[in-house]
Specification:
alpha/beta; 2 domains; 4-stranded mixed beta sheet; elongated
Amino acid sequence: MIEANETVVPVLPCAAPEQTLRFWRALGATVEYEQAKPYPYLAFRLGGLDVHYGASHGGTGTCLVMVDTVADYHAAFATRMREGYGTVPATGQPRITRFRPGASRFTLTDPDGNSLIFIQRDAPEVEYGGAAHLHGLAKVLDNARTLRESRLDDLSAWRALNSGLRRHADGATPAEIGAALAALIELSAALGEDTTGWGTRLAGLALTPEERDRVRAEVADPALLTPWLSTGPGPQA
């Protein structure tokens, strides 16, 4: 019998030790070990997470981190990155992906391009193409969330929503249409595209306060929707 007391520690490739040290210190990690010669080796501990780095021979690595409250980790990392880097980088290296309310994962990318994917332990299984029990625009929205959050593929998500909105808008609820438009605004901004057309359509929707809340929950930063989404007590004209 083998006693089940294993501990697995990822060892990721590192070509930029100084940047890696700055990155993990900014996140609040403790440097457990630091070696420069004859080859670089770094060891960090952050809470119950141990991450080590060895010499890079090209390529990058990926590490899955299962947690109970993924939103808390994202909030803490975003705060620490803002303090350490003066911003919360969403592009380049290092970076952290957007996080909308209710999302079950996010990806933290280190200065070498390694990905640490933080996933909620009780997250539902990802269904590419959208959950089987959904239909129409609701299914398109679910698929787009998977493309955005699991595959980190903003362009494919944008294309899926753009196409899905054309095909399914007639049978969709105002809240579903608003959520699709909100996601298209966020994705267009991330892709460097004009958001005015989507915003104008969103401004023209008659939404209840509850529906407006649902639309805001579709994006990581509701401020993106402020120019077009009414905050008044009743449906928009």
